[in-house]
Amino acid sequence: MTVEQMLDDTAAHGGTVFQICDYAPIDEAGPERLAAIRAHAESLGIVLELGTRGTEPEHLRRQLRIATALGATLLRSMWTNGEDRPDAEESERRLRQLLPELDAAGVNLALETYEQVPSADLVALVDAVGHPRVGICLDPANTVANLELPGDVVARCARRTLNWHVKDFDFSRNPGWVGFVYTGTALGQGRLDYDHVRELVRPAERGISQIVEFWLPWADDVPEADQPETTARREAEWTRTTMEYLRSKNNV
């Protein structure tokens, strides 16, 4: 799908925000292409956000220029990016460098919770920077792999949250009861306590967008020839179910 097709699909499901996240072609897009994407989003009444990884200043400056061209006011990133794994002191130094540019562009930077960085360390970094344009992208499903309970992560991060990746999840036993699989579900069908997260984060009151994200398993339970179509069909069903759930919970 092109970005325009993704935006059309978002609008068809009643979505009003679309985060272009970890999407390599956007990094290579020129000014005309970025302007066309922005115009298409605006014609649909959709607000754009941008997602990348890392805190290397020049990389974030490039992403900030892309965000500005798209009219995006939120840039999601992550503490690390591949082999670039700065410590807390270096990360704070990098982020402080960017504060004037974030202010000038009117863009918020939200660092995502994930298993490679303890959520307490992430909150400590954001607190150390101490600027309203630097906060957290909350995704409590990610940190389970670091043995952090989702409820603890939400309680710790809520006050600094600027963006919320709404992703439900569950555990199931492997065949033969040998081990477990940790995977995604449609919203409302897994272990995410959506009501509790919403109560603490207060997205409507604070202007925090809720970005739907899936860990969609590949449909390897059907014949190989049918797997791509079945996976796509399940994704469409998850999307419909999830958007209906969000509307019911947010009175939209």
Automatic annotation (TrEMBL):
Tagged with keyword Iron-sulfur: no
Gene3D superfamilies: Divalent-metal-dependent TIM barrel enzymes
Sequence ranges assigned to domain Xylose isomerase-like TIM barrel in this UniProt record: 57-241
This protein's UniProt keywords: Carbohydrate metabolism, Isomerase
One Gene Ontology molecular-function label: isomerase activity
Pfam families: AP_endonuc_2
Tagged with keyword Isomerase: yes
PANTHER family reported in the protein's UniProt record: HYDROXYPYRUVATE ISOMERASE (PTHR12110), XYLOSE ISOMERASE (PTHR12110:SF52)
Protein name: Sugar phosphate isomerase/epimerase
Source species: Mycetocola reblochoni
